[in-house]
Amino acid sequence: MSTGHAHKLYRHGESPVHRLPPHCKIAAALCFVLVVVSTPREAVWAFGLYALLLGAVAAAARVPAGFVLRRLVIEIPFVAFALLMPFLVPGERTEWLGISLSVPGLWGAWNILAKGTLGVATSVLLASTTELRSLLLGLQRLKLPPLMVQIASFMIRYGDVITDEMRRMSIARRSRGFEARGVRHWGVLAKSAGALFIRSYERGERVHLAMVSRGYTGTMPVIDEVTASRAQWAYAAALPFSALAVCLLGWTL
Amino acid sequence: MTSLPPPAAVPPSLDVRGLAYAYPDGHQALFGVDLTVERGERVGLLGPNGAGKTTLVLHLNGILAGGAGTVAVAGLPVGKQHMAEIRRKVGIVFQDPDDQLFMPTVREDVAFGPAAAGLRGEELEKRVRTALDLVGMTEYLDRPPHHLSFGQRRRVAVATVLAMEPEILVLDEPSSNLDPASRRELADILRSLDVTVLMVTHDLPYALELCPRSVILSEGVIAADGRTQDLLADPDLMHAHRLELPFGFDPRAVTTGA
Fold first, then answer.
1. What ipTM is given for this predicted complex?
2. Average pLDDT per block of 10 residues along chain A, 253 residues long
3. Residues A204 and A236 occupy one common structural domain
4. Domains plus CATH for chain B?
5. Which of A158, A172, B86, B153 to pair with A179, CA 20 to 30 A apart?
6. Which residue has the higher pLDDT, B4 or B155?
7. A223 inside 8 A of chain B by CB
8. Any B CB within 8 A of A8 CB
């Protein structure tokens, strides 16, 4: 599936991971995250192994580590929250460099950091090896409610159109000498947002009209059938299954 | 009136009789429209803003209904029982291609209509290719529509409708926002198609170029029906219905092929 334009998260490539059918990848990523989340936080070594597994996937997908690490920046708000926990959570205290920290808080912070980072890294890998469009096909194939898939695909199609409209409105504002400075101008911006909303709503009606005119009756017709062979499923399942083994060890040891 | 061959056994592509319609808010847009378009004809539907052109168009595939009168497409009455068939037979190309092209890629968009009608696999792929070939856009198959130029998007919009192999192609302001080259390219494409065309426009030279016959819709009725050249060359008629030719344009000086 080659489109001239890809979204920013996608990293073009021809690796075996790129070639996997999208629904296999989505299922594998979801299962992996579930396994990671259900691992006891005390099994610190298990999270190291998970990170190694993801590293192996990244290597197979030929996604450089720097790329994944840069994308991990999105996690920062959660990190900030996790870093507060040792100070705020009540319970047994311990001293570290003269600062009093709560032990359950430290474990809580570690839990969020480790599981969160692994989860985000998994999503980053999924997004960088799967095009947005095939991601949608995969979700459709996994029997996600069709309405949700349709809404998502319209967001992709019309995101640019609406951004463009927004840009034109901003140019029109500035051409008439308006520069947004401070609270006093928020009213104007709010009115622009309202106008944009109404325009988008009207466009939605026109798009619906065009769809109905071409025989739309509430469900999207299947245009691209995505199928996966047993081997492809097995290849995709390698990640969650090895993670499951690690997880089980973590519970028993 | 028209100098067409006598109607053969084939039913007309479009047969509108006594169509009247008032919007729910009470505004009446159509007051008894009669219009017949024979198979293979290219007819211009001219009229000032607010004449009811769009209202008429939306009746042709049953999006609007409930007023008086009947519409038949290739002998099939427009109504609830044949709606899917009617929507396939009447291909409407809307004015803004961004409304018409709603799928992530050109290929999927062109495939939407035939796929909704149940076509799959190889057959669907062939339909898409043929339609895109007709408008010369095959090489843009996998492009997202918003990365095409406006003229290209309009051509793809035409292809999305051609893929349904319609009985009649209805174009709403096909020349709007096109630069002269795109305008000429679209005219060449429309001329090359073997399909009945109803072209809604107030671009009068474009109607003259493409449509041997035109009708004027004014205040909800068909006010005139005849050779496009004759209509445009009648200054009183034109003035009465708020139609104006571009500066310096003389319809009598133009020799039309048709």
1. 0.81
2. 53 81 89 90 86 89 86 84 80 76 84 90 90 84 86 84 87 82 83 90 91 86 79 84 84 79
3. no
4. 14-243 (3.40.50.300)
5. A158
6. B155
7. yes
8. no
Instruction: Give the pLDDT score at A235.
Output: 84
Tell me the HSE value of B137 on the side-chain side, using a 13 A CA sphere. 34
- Determine, yes or no, domain membership for A104: yes
Are A67 and A58 contacting, i.e. CB atoms less than 8 angstroms apart? Answer: no
Domain annotation covers residue A9 = no
Q: For residue B12, what is the DSSP state?
A: P
Q: Check whether residue A30 and residue A151 sit in a common domain.
A: no
State the average pLDDT for chain B: 90
The pLDDT tens digits of the residues spanning B9-38 come to 789 999 999 999 999 998 999 999 999 999
The C-alpha of B60 sits at a distance from chain A's nearest C-alpha, in angstroms, of 10
Q: How far apart are CA A174 and CA A178, in angstroms?
A: 5
Query: In chain A, what residues touch B112 (CB-CB under 8 Å)?
Result: 211, 214, 216, 221, 223
Separation between Cα atoms, residue A217 and residue A209, nearest integer Å = 11
Identify residue A130 by its one-letter amino acid code. Answer: T
Residue A215 sits at the chain B interface (C-beta within 8 Å):
yes
Q: Which helix (H) or strand (E) holds A93?
A: strand A93-96
A169 in a domain, yes or no?
yes
Does some domain include residue A95?
A: yes
**For residue B179, what pLDDT band results from cuts at 50, 70 and 90?**
very high
User: Which residue in A153, A213, A217 is closest to B61 by CB distance?
Assistant: A213
Residues of A in contact with B147 (CB under 8 A): 4-5
Between A and B, how many CB-CB pairs are < 8 A? 90
Residues A98 and A166 in one domain: no
Strand order in the sheet with B76-77: B28-37, B14-22, B68-73, B76-77
pTM, 2 dp: 0.78
In order of A209, B154, B214, the CA distances from B208 in angstroms are: 29, 20, 8
How many domains are there within chain A?
2
Whether B62 has its CB under 8 Å from any CB of chain A: the answer is: no
Query: Is B126 within 8 Å of chain A by CB?
Result: no
* Statement to judge: residues A30 and A123 lie in one domain: yes
